[in-house]
Specification:
Layout: H1 2-9, H2 16-27, H3 33-45, H4 50-63, E1 74-79, H5 90-100, E2 104-109, H6 119-125, H7 134-144, E3 146-150, H8 151-154, H9 159-168, E4 188-192, H10 196-206, E5 212-218, E6 231-235, E7 238-242, H11 263-274, H12 280-297, H13 303-315, H14 318-328
Parallel strand pairs: 1-2, 1-4, 2-3, 4-5
Antiparallel strand pairs: 5-6, 6-7
Amino acid sequence: MKGILEKLYAHQHLTRKEATDVLAEISQNKYSKSQIASFITVFNMRKISPQEVLGFRDCLLERCVKVDLSSYKAIDIVGTGGDGKDTFNISTLSCFVVAGAGEKVIKHGNYSASSVSGSSHMLEAFGYRFTQDQGELERYLESSGVCFLHAPLFHPALKSVAEIRKELGVKTFFNIMGPLVNPARPSHQLLGTFNVETARLYHSVLEQTQVNYKVVCSVDGYDEVSLTDSCRIYDQMGENSIEPSDFGFQKIKPNEIKGGKTVEENAKIFLDILKGNGSQAQNQVVCANAGLAIKTLNPQYSLEESVLMAKESLNSKKALAVFEKLMNL
């Protein structure tokens, strides 16, 4: 570790292999808490490189609980969180709308550290049983079109740094790793983050993988398509700007997509939208994100066609049927 720290203190970047190896050794408890804390905090003092992120990703995917769902053409829809906007669970709702449109969704999620209810909070509130059993996950995916991978069940390597991260009490590079380490390695991903710098980092990382992806960043700081302003979109074709009108919608106001103050309040919003009782703004923002996910899976579709498919899934209650089926399996 001494050599690694000296290299980092000299403002040098780790190679992909060095990043993989040092995180593997950290996960094996080979270093002291002070050494690990020093290592982690270096990346708060300077920008992390795409090669370092790729190395950390390699390590976490190598050491995670393996799940083989590679026979499915599927997408993960995930926001990084941390945008401080306190919206309802837009990404999680979008998963059911996408599945209602006939696609497969393998969502990787966790409890939220910065908002009222993360995806794990929401599904747990409805009685979803977290599992790492491949047979069960495949049954969920086959029967409903959706399965959910609760991150703590799949990443034992992170246990070695959990206490140190908690004691530090600040965001670290581990906060950006979650969306990159879905254990099932789905073929497609729609990833949202709240600032352009992180969006470009994800873009630089994902273009060196086999994932078909879109990274979205709202210019006013949402980690998803918010329809409150324009968004930046990054994919294999490069970087583009997209407006609410490109989805066929008018710009909406931030207060129209606010979430509740408790998990229970957000669960009510969640179910109201699926049952057809959501507001126009709520329905539109869910369909915008679901539509972008459908287009990520099917590049041959126009964005307009993809959003129409999302609308049909929500309005016909197909998304609700997917949700009810998953919860009753």
